[in-house]
Design a protein that fits this description.
Strand order of the largest sheet: 1-10-9-7-8
Radius of gyration: 23 Å
Structural class: alpha/beta
Distance between the termini: 60 Å
Bound molecules: 5-phosphoarabinonic acid
Order of helices and strands: EHHHEHEHEHEHEHHHEHEHEHEHHH
Low-confidence stretches: none
Number of helices: 16
Number of strands: 10
Largest sheet: 5 strands, mixed
Helix content: 40-55%
Mean pLDDT: 96
Shape: globular
Length: 448
């Protein structure tokens, strides 16, 4: 098993009875998912994706990745939310958060279309100047403002640099199979396209072309990633919480939240876990935060954040629990040098591996936080391999679905995301939004 859940440091905060209650509820959530009878059941394609993916497209992904690796120095991935977080999380976890700065024979990868920042865009365009560039625009709907605007800008950049014909060879589009406007445009322009399956929502799409193409470009073995997810799909199939750690995780986080622990902090002890925590936050935040319910997903990277949020976690409002993602085998070693002068008084660390020090920081923090009233779950990952990560991604996706059903929400929709868009469109003068524009402008005037 590549992933193990340790509940020792959460158990004292719960009673045995709560475990028993949770099993019955887990059984119900499991049946709902298995029988595809729950809310959002049109979006369960991710459940079997590790096995039932499009093999022809999968082969094309590998071919396109090889072509991109050969033909560019910079690869721009354009997408927002579920259309970029998974790929970025995997590349940073398996390669490095410093991937672009490392010596390598694969292109630099930058992410665009995930904000509306002019300065960020200008910096990316400056980075592309004088270098060979390919882009992958990823948008299931094809109409999301942020990636659509970024696509306009990078398409113009590529067409100016390579002409329409040359740009065609450098633009890769991942979108809805048939319905979206982007698909029609890509076909008309002759761009190579990949599919976001109809029954897979953005935040569950990392193991589709959405994630796999950028991940393959970075040189990650996508076969291994898929093998890990396949192993998870098989191992996490039964609802018995004494045997299924994924279901146990879903049960425990719900049991804790019912006791007022309504904020879950995902904790990593490695900078390469940072983007994974961002992916996880979107997965759980968008899936569960609705109908006035939800566990608020937050994240920290220790020991960095022990020097910023550590105080609050130790001593602030007691509505928190932590889930630590711990990678057992780091695969690297970094000994600490001896200093004959011992200026910092740290010679007791001489010759010790940084991984060991990090582990003691984890252990010490865990005890301190538990003593301070913060339950801790630990998710232990065997190693930093694509197989273990594939397992973990699937583990979190399935736990999220089960957890959403335990909570009594539809884990597969995101109606709340529309509210800001409507206001933004109205303020920007989109046709059809005139009434809303007047109302919002009146509110702005009242502010002055
Ligand atoms: O998880 C989701 O569904 C969202 O985060 C979407 O991925 C995000 O809003 C981007 O949507 P689209 O891929 O349609 O541009």
């Amino acid at each position: 098993m590549s992933v193990r859940l340790i509940d020792t440091y959460a158990k004292p905060f719960l009673s045995e009875k709560e475990y028993e209650y949770m099993q019955a509820q887990l059984n119900a959530a499991h049946t709902t998912l298995q029988e595809r009878s729950g809310a959002g059941n049109a979006f369960l394609g991710w459940v079997d994706l590790p096995r039932d993916y499009d093999k022809e497209e999968y082969a094309r992904i590998k071919k396109a990745a090889a072509k991109i690796q050969k033909s560019c120095d910079v690869f721009i991935v354009i997408g927002i939310g579920g259309s970029y977080l998974g790929a970025r999380a995997v590349v940073e976890f398996l390669k490095s958060p410093l991937y672009n700065n490392l010596k390598k024979d694969t292109p630099d990868i930058y992410f665009s279309g995930c904000n509306i920042s002019a300065s960020n865009m200008q910096e990316l365009l400056a980075i592309c100047e004088g270098r060979d560039v390919c882009i992958n625009v990823i948008s299931k709907s094809g109409t999301t403002t942020e990636p659509a605007v970024a696509f306009r800008i990078f398409r113009e950049f590529l067409e100016k640099k390579y002409g329409t014909e040359g740009a065609r060879e450098r633009i890769f589009v991942t979108t809805d199979r048939a319905r979206g406007t982007l698909k029609g445009f890509a076909d008309a322009m002759g761009y190579e396209t990949f599919v976001v399956p109809d029954d897979v929502g953005g935040r569950f799409s990392v193991l589709s072309a959405v994630g796999l193409l950028p991940i393959a470009v970075s040189g990650v073995e996508i076969d291994e990633l898929m093998a890990g997810a396949t192993a998870a799909r098989e191992a996490l199939a039964e609802p018995d919480l004494t045997k299924n750690d994924c279901y146990k995780y879903a049960a425990l986080r719900n049991a804790l939240s019912r006791r007022g622990k309504t904020t879950e902090i995902l904790v990593g002890y490695e900078p390469y876990l940072q983007m994974l925590t961002e992916w996880w936050k979107q997965l759980y935040g968008e899936s569960e935060g609705k109908d006035g319910k939800g566990i608020f997903p937050a994240s920290v990277i220790f020991s960095t954040d022990l020097h910023s949020l550590g105080q609050y976690i130790q001593d602030g409002v007691r509505n928190l629990f932590e889930t630590v993602v711990w990678v057992k085998e780091s695969g690297t070693k970094q000994p600490i040098p001896h200093d004959p002068q011992n200026i910092d008084g740290l010679n007791f660390l001489s010759g010790k591996d940084l991984n060991y020090v990090n582990e003691m920081a984890k252990q010490g923090t865990l005890f301190a936080h538990v003593d301070g009233g913060v339950p801790n779950l630990v998710i232990e990952l065997e190693d930093r391999s694509p197989r273990s990560l594939g397992y973990l991604l699937y583990f979190f996706e399935k736990a999220c679905a089960i957890s959403g059903y335990l909570l009594g929400v539809n884990p597969f929709d995101q109606p709340g995301v529309e509210a800001y868009k409507k206001n933004m469109f109205a303020l920007l003068g989109k046709p059809g939004y005139e009434e809303q524009k007047n109302a919002l402008e009146a509110r702005i005037s009242a502010q002055k």
